Amino acid sequence: MPFNNLIGGEWVAGARYGHNLNPSDTADTIGEYAQADVTQLDAAVSAAQAAFPRWSTGSVQARSDTLDKIGSEILARREELGTLLAREEGKTRPEAIGEVTRAGHIFKFFAGECLRLSGETLPSVRPGVGVDITREPIGVVGLITPWNFPIAIPAWKIAPALAFGNCVVFKPADLVPASAWALAEIIHRSGLPAGVFNLVMGRGSVIGDPLVTHPGIVAVSFTGSTSVGHRIAMQCAEHGKKVQLEMGGKNPQVVLDDADLAQAVELSVQSAFFSTGQRCTASSRLIVTEGIYDRFIAAMKERMATLRVGDALAAGTDIGPAASQAQMEQDLMYVDVALGEGATLAAGGTAASCHTGSGNTGFFVTPTLLTDTAAGMRINREEVFGPLAAVIKVKDYEEALDVANNTEYGLSAGIATTSLKHATHFKRHVQSGMVMVNLPTAGVDYHVPFGGRKASSYGPREQGRYAQEFFTTVKTAYTAA
Ligand SMILES: NC(=O)C1=CN([C@@H]2O[C@H](COP(=O)(O)OP(=O)(O)OC[C@H]3O[C@@H](n4cnc5c(N)ncnc54)[C@H](OP(=O)(O)O)[C@@H]3O)[C@@H](O)[C@H]2O)C=CC1
Ligand SMILES: O=C(O)CCC(=O)C(=O)O
């Protein structure tokens, strides 16, 4: 059965279809998914525009009930949806079930948030006048999501958009349409009025520009690469649209001499290699002070030797495949780049041949540790998005902080230390949107703000109650008594 787009409450056949492949096993096709053309995109925007007047002024209780119902179904089906997600994206099944669970919780959180939207009442500077400040829905929003979190990232854009009374045109990554389609199907059956939520699967190269520049779209929320993010920002500025971007990271994990060694190794392994390193919050730079350096590298190599690379669906797999052949090739290309720059390969660095169910193999890369690297090397400046970590040796905390901040990115940063003084100083002075003390840089809560500084993010924060900043607009009303 082909999987179609959802436009104006109807399942609509694609202009063409694409194969969705399992990156653990290239003989396994998950399904044929519709790819929209510009005519279908126009139809989705028109349907959303038609639905907006009633949805934006309708019952808040109905909105809350609908979001709660969507969250409940996602949670009830977390194992099945997690299996689908692991099969199409390549993170391990437990990681995928965790992501689905997060998506369910996000819908339930925003079911509450739509009841908590508040304003302010102030006295006017003019006697006899009152001032009310309220938040209103913004209109039809375009949501563009990447392949690395195929249900959680859509959830944290769709749920607040709907909660605050907006209508949605959602374009998931072409590489992972199955999780997006499953989510859309749940949303469709939740009782949402036709046209409030529309799914347009398809290629960014075909419908990306038309979606972002469409006059019916008032705001765009995007997560993905820095290059596409910058393009969208320019287009939104030109067309006067609100824009929210989450892009790359080059997240530092500092390890100080006084760190608990076992804890520092575990959190570094988790944030560098779990989810195959395909997280914008992954630590790809391990910045280690000289007193603990040799012990840390030895313990990392020992722990890495226990990691099992394999089929995302197999029990006991720690690291699944890269999500695509292109991503695997990019990972291996960066190993060559680092070695060419003078780095030493301490572990991994190769394609792995893991035979899966059909006897075919997928896009596996061994977890890779590169030592003898310097802050200025490409391996320490460019986002790789694979299971690769580069180690930079530093003299002391002050140098570690300098190196941590020596990047164009600023999403997440971590420190492993038992020093309250250094932890406190790092929390205040590291240039990132999120900071972790004795915790992995990746893996965040769903009810608090998510986002970064510098080239990592642009526009208002996502998630938690801060999400209302992007998905509402402020009105100031003056009333004469
Ligand atoms: N910060 C993060 O969370 C992520 C970062 N990345 C980084 O980006 C690199 C490349 O990954 P990639 O998937 O190509 O990322 P992209 O930025 O190309 O894709 C992200 C989303 O944007 C869409 N898109 C592509 N071109 C346009 C356009 N012109 N206008 C509007 N939307 C568009 C994509 O569609 P389509 O899928 O059809 O191309 C996808 O839905 C990775 O190696 C990684 O470094 C990637 C994913 C997530
Ligand atoms: O680390 C996390 O929990 C979230 C990561 C993320 O959102 C991303 O990689 O795009």
Structure description:
- With 481 residues, this protein is an alpha/beta fold.
- It folds into two domains: 2-247 and 456-480, Aldehyde Dehydrogenase, Chain A, domain 1; 251-437, Aldehyde Dehydrogenase, Chain A, domain 2 (3-Layer(aba) Sandwich).
- Helices cover 38% and strands 24% of the residues.
- α2 (60-76) packs antiparallel against α4 (93-113) and α9 (261-273) crosses α10.
- 54% of the residues are buried.
- The mean pLDDT is 97.
- The structure holds NADPH dihydro-nicotinamide-adenine-dinucleotide phosphate (NDP) and 2-oxoglutaric acid.
- 2-oxoglutaric acid binds at residues 148-149, 223, 279-281, 442-444.
Task: Name its key features.
single chain, Ald_DH_N, binds NADPH dihydro-nicotinamide-adenine-dinucleotide phosphate, 7-stranded mixed sheet, binds 2-oxoglutaric acid, Ald_DH_CS_CYS, oxidoreductase, Ald_DH_CS_GLU, alpha/beta, 24 strands, Aldehyde dehydrogenase family protein, 481 residues, Aldehyde Dehydrogenase, Chain A, domain 1, Aldehyde Dehydrogenase, Chain A, domain 2, 6-stranded mixed sheet
